[in-house]
Amino acid sequence: MASTSDIKKGLCIRYNHDIYKIIEFLHVKPGKGPAFVRTKLKSVTSGKVIDNTFSAGHKIEDVRVETRSYQYLYPEGETFHFMNTDDYNQITLQKDSLDSPDLLKEGEIVTIIFNAEDNMPLSVEMPASVILEITHTEPGVKGNTATNATKPATVETGARINVPLFINEGDKIKIDTEKGAYMERIKE
């Protein structure tokens, strides 16, 4: 058993007969009344996100997890195939168990979290950022902007990202996987 002081991003807990992963949390200490923790929980079975508030000191049942490195191999319909980088065993996961499957490039190394009790995969943690090549974007017209304007672009995995006007086809860009947003252009 853990308490609200142990809450951190990525912690897996058992709540309402399901396993949830904490994706956001905020400790709130109002001037009047007791402190509480506001959380955003994502179900690892259904992918549904709920908001919940725990009062300070509330006991929560954490789930013992193990993390393992896997290499993403290929997609097949709604399933994605991964290979363990240590023993080369392969597993398949449903598309909805991934946070941002459209940013996953073949050969990418991800961390898969497993429930230590029954060895079931709970969630897939992407790297903080990925580097992808722009396959299609409209050319930016110089002089028609007053502020930081963006245009839509398609990257090699098929995902659509808004990028600054100076980005062209063939450029490699760094993308924040959590927000799905452009970070910077990569020079080679």
From TrEMBL:
Pathway terms, separated by semicolons: Protein biosynthesis; polypeptide chain elongation
Record's subcellular location: Cytoplasm
GO cellular component: cytosol
GO biological process per UniProt: peptide biosynthetic process
Family statement drawn from the similarity comment of this UniProt entry: Belongs to the elongation factor P family.
Function: Involved in peptide bond synthesis. Stimulates efficient translation and peptide-bond synthesis on native or reconstituted 70S ribosomes in vitro. Probably functions indirectly by altering the affinity of the ribosome for aminoacyl-tRNA, thus increasing their reactivity as acceptors for peptidyl transferase.
Listed name of the protein: Elongation factor P
